[in-house]
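Hey everyone, long-time lurker, first post.

I ran two proteins through the pipeline my lab uses and got sequence/structure pairs for each. Pasting them in order. The first:
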Amino acid sequence: VQLQASGGGLVQAGGYLRVSCVVSGRTFTSYVMAWFRQAPGKEREFVAAISRVSSTTKYADSVKGRFTISRDNAKNTVYLQMNSLKPEDTAVYYCAADGSSVVTTPTYDYHYWGQGTLVTVSS
């Protein structure tokens, strides 16, 4: 399974950005998908996750109401729409996949990872 994240960049505070992750190698609908992020000097943290058929989503409290996770199973792609961005959202954003049927938040539950895409929010 290969995950390829893209769409990061530099944006001003209050702006928006959408990152994407294309999955290849196995049936996309076999996976719960998630986004994590890691800021410099900090541990990787959960951002959002979505179930196989988009019926369930979970968000970190820090992004709830500002970020939206979605997936397009026809395109083998998961998205993270990020609105009202803050400087503290600056991080490398990683997409991750897990073959279970349960939407979870711990990093260790996800067995496949993309390479990350950098999001920088300037103040």
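...and the second, right after it:
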Amino acid sequence: VQLQASGGGSVQAGDSLRLSCAASGRSISSYDMGWFRHVPGKPREFVAAIKSTSSNEYYADSVKGRFVISRDNAKNTVYLQMNGLKPEDTAAYYCAADIVVLRPQEPHEYGYWGQGTQVTVSS
């Protein structure tokens, strides 16, 4: 499965953005999906994840209550709605996928990655 992330941009603190991760090659209906972010010089950081059945969602404490992950299997797309953005949310955001991810917060659990989309939040 190929993943294409989009929707990043430069915004002010408090603004909202919606990232999209469009999949191709295979249906993502059987895949667990995740979003991670990366700032140069720091480890890749878990942001959010959603199980294939949409029965469970997972969030990093730093984004809980502000970000919402969702998926539309008919459109083969996963979304990350980001509200109340803060300067510390500035990073390149990546979507990831794999079948039966046991530990959604762990990047090595995912075998498929999209390219990053940059989010820059200014104060």
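Reply from user beta_strand_b:
Welcome! Quick read of the second one: The mean pLDDT is 97. The longest strand covers residues 17-24.
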